[in-house]
Every structure is written in structure tokens, then in C-alpha cells.
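Field guide to reading this record: the first block holds the primary sequence, the second block holds the structure written as C-alpha cells, and the final block holds curator observations. Each block starts with its own label. This record concerns DUF4230 domain-containing protein, catalogued under organism Streptomyces muensis.

BLOCK 1 — SEQUENCE
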Amino acid sequence: MTTPIKRIDKRMPGWAKAVSALILVLVVFFAGIRLSVIPGLKDLFGTETNDRSGPALLQSIQDMSRYDAASGNFQIVVDLEKDAKFLPDAIRGTRTLYVGAGTVDAYVDLGKVGERDVTVNDDRTSATLRLPHAALGKPALDPDRSYAVSKERGLLDRLGDLFSDNPNSEQAVQQLAVKHIGEAAKESALTARAETNTTGMLEGLLHSLGFKEVKVTYGT
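BLOCK 2 — STRUCTURE
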């Protein structure tokens, strides 16, 4: 009598199928939220923003002696591309187009004016002032007018963004924008305009005090 051969059922148990299906659904679900490929998913679980920041602490106070005489508005389009060695851009690499808008102030430091830099005649009708040359302040990026136009990322970069947030993702392009704005300010006539405006301000002030002749020069 032949003994029947029992077949070994290698099929996945029902509970394992259910768990696998649930994991797959969750992965697709959260990926859809992350990449915004499924319309309405973000609205389904709407987020609420709460500002739990503490009060701002005053760390120091500095007396200002400079006269801000001019301010320049600048805009730069930053095109930053980062490639990986031996890998195509579609796999690993990023390219960001960023519009950076900011301002640079030009000022004259009146705190550097000494007694020898101011000459007044005996009847107080003529005054001569020697001031330091105008200087440029640090570029200030305006977040309300700066924005990313486009971001191209390779597959590996996109997968990395699925599981982690990178708050410094735009830091590199912002730093480049500040750098280029500062360089543009140096090549502009901003400091010359600041000296012209400072001269006009001092002439108007001293004329109102009774001085008939006012001469303002710049140099160390």
C-alpha cells in the first residue's frame, strides 16, 4: 500500500499577509503625504501650529555712533548644483534655484571723529569737518522676498527626505546669496552715495545753527 505524500504548505500565514499588507499601506500612505502625490492627504490630518517659544532675552546693548546714510536693495538668482562622484544626477545629486533679496546699508562712523577733525573759526561762521570714509554694513537677507524657485533631487536624496527633515536644506544657497549681495554692494556706488548724503545732512544741520560756510571732507 502506497503511503500518500503530504505536501508542505509554504504559503504565507494569514496573519503575516495582513501585517505585510498593513506595512505596505502605511509606507505608501506616509510617502504620499511626504511627496504630496496623493491629493487631500495633507488636509486629512491637518496640522496645527503652536508657538511655544519663550520670551526673548536681552543679551547686550551697544551705543550706536554711526550714521546710516544710504541703503541698497539687491536681488540675486543662485543656481547651486551638487553632484556625487561616479553616480548620475538622477541617482544622487541636487540642484537648487534660489532668488535671494536683501539690503546693504552704507554708513559713516561719527564716533571716530576727534577734536582735531573739527575746525571752527573764531566768530563761529565757518566749520570744517574731516570724517572717515563711508563703510558697508553686513548684507541682510529678506526672508519675505527670498524663495526657492525649484529643487531637483536624485532618487537617493528623495528617499532620504522621506525619513528625515533637513532644516538646513536652504542654508547653502542663502549663504551664497548673502555673499553675492555683499560683493555687488562693494562694486556699487553705495558708499559714495552715503558720503554725499552725510555731507548734505551736516551742512543742513550746521547752517541751521548759524554757520555760513561748511566744508566736509573724507579720509583718515
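BLOCK 3 — OBSERVATIONS
Residues 34 and 161 are 8 Å apart (CA to CA).
The mean pLDDT is 77.
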